[in-house]
Amino acid sequence: MPSLINDQLPPVRHYEAAPLTKEQLDYVDLPTIDISSFTASADPNVRSQLVAQVRSAIAKYGFFYVLNHGLSTAQTVRMFDIADVPFSDVDDDEKKKYQSRLKETGTQQGYKPRQYHHIDNGIRDQIEIYSLNHDVNKSGHPAALRPLLPEIEQFAYHNHVNVLYPILRLVELHKWEDMSESSGHTDIGSLTLLYSQPIAALQIRTKDGSWKWVKHIENAIVVNAGDAIEFLSGGLYSATIHRVVQPPADQRAYTRLGLFYFVLATEDVKLKPLNSPILQRRADIWLKERFQGAEVPTMAEWRKGRTKSDGNAELKASATNLGVEEEYLNGVLIKHYV
Predict the structure, then answer these.
(1) What is the percent of the chain with per-residue pLDDT over 70, rounded to a whole number?
(2) Which of 21, 50, 52, 183 could be cross-linked to 248 through a Cys-Cys bond (beta carbons 3.0 to 4.6 Å apart)?
(3) Helix (H) or strand (E) holding 325
């Protein structure tokens, strides 16, 4: 990736990250994948080992760290500075001009304002989001962000080609040129790449049903599996249930800034088990259990449906699972963990 640090780049106000918490938290022990070995070696055995590591990490946890991903610490810091611009350098009136039409179109491009999602008992969320497509010219952007679009596009391309491709072997379903936009829940797409930041708030639900914190690792990417991976693998790999909770007391005065790259399969891909001998042996049973006779959606249909319903659907308490609320999206059961 071309250097993002030079004197000719537009100046950006520095985002000061929070100090690490001093509280003793129950962290999950996630695997760490060094993807530099994929690009540094042409040895097929080395690459096979990497694939095996990723497969094991997704099967056991659905979450893992990626190190040596090709961006220096300075480059990552620069991207966090850029990520803060839509929130700190854009006033409320201009934000309204670029607000997402989530319920109408199922498209996330633009701003999702605070208090858009209903959480529970009249409580609404306090998360503000700015989303843009990997094709940065697909929609308009606030004036403060426009000079930074070339860097954002480079960043997206780097994540897709230099991070995603080495760890995801389904590249024919996730081509750069074809890709769409990007409570306890699962993510919509295949993988989510989250650049680690110091405020402790992300938790994952482990196999035994407990919630554990995800620890910050400097200049690491936290990767997690989403719905599309579960569907394409016929449940061999599960979408990971996770949530964002209130940070520890010594970090609550700081703003938690997230830097994400969401990976979705190509829009017309049917989210059904791939044509593989291993998956086909379980595909029919899994399809009946998961879709219960409903039409298997395409990536575009699932993306739009989940986006429209998120925070707006009427949830009902599960009759069989305590602490679980359920909704049906086009006949497909979705669980939310409270």
Answers:
(1) 78
(2) 21
(3) strand 324-329
- Summarize the confidence of residues 149-170 as an average pLDDT: 87
Residue from 112, 64, 326 nearest 214 by CA: 64
pLDDT tens digit string along 244-279? 899 999 999 999 999 999 988 888 888 888 887 777
Domains in the chain: ranges and CATH: 32-337 (2.60.120.330)
Pairwise CA distance, residues 309 & 244, whole Å: 19
Q: Look at residues 182, 212, 163, 172 and name the one whose alpha carbon lies nearest to residue 62.
A: 212
- The C-alpha atoms of residue 329 and residue 212 are separated, in whole angstroms, by 28
Residue 117 Cα distances to 28, 82, 314, angstroms: 28, 25, 12
CA distance 57 to 30: 8
pLDDT in tens, 122-157: 666 678 989 998 889 988 999 999 999 999 999 999
Q: Taking a C-beta distance cutoff of 8 angstroms, is the pair 213, 254 a contact?
A: no
* pTM, to two decimals: 0.85
Is residue 52 over pLDDT 80?
yes
For 290-327, letters b (16+ CB in 10 Å) and e give: bbeeeebbbbbbbbbbbbbbbbebebeeeeeeeebbbb
Q: What angle do CA 15, 136, 18 make, to 5 degrees?
A: 15
**What are the CA-CA distances from residue 69 to residues 16, 36, 40, 192, 229 (Å)?**
23, 7, 12, 15, 22
How many residues are recorded in the chain?
Answer: 338
Task: Give all strands (DSSP E) within 35-140, no chain letters.
Answer: 63-67, 110-112, 118-120, 123-124, 129-131
Helical (H) or strand (E) element with 328: strand 324-329
User: What local confidence, expressed as pLDDT, does residue 311 receive?
Assistant: 59
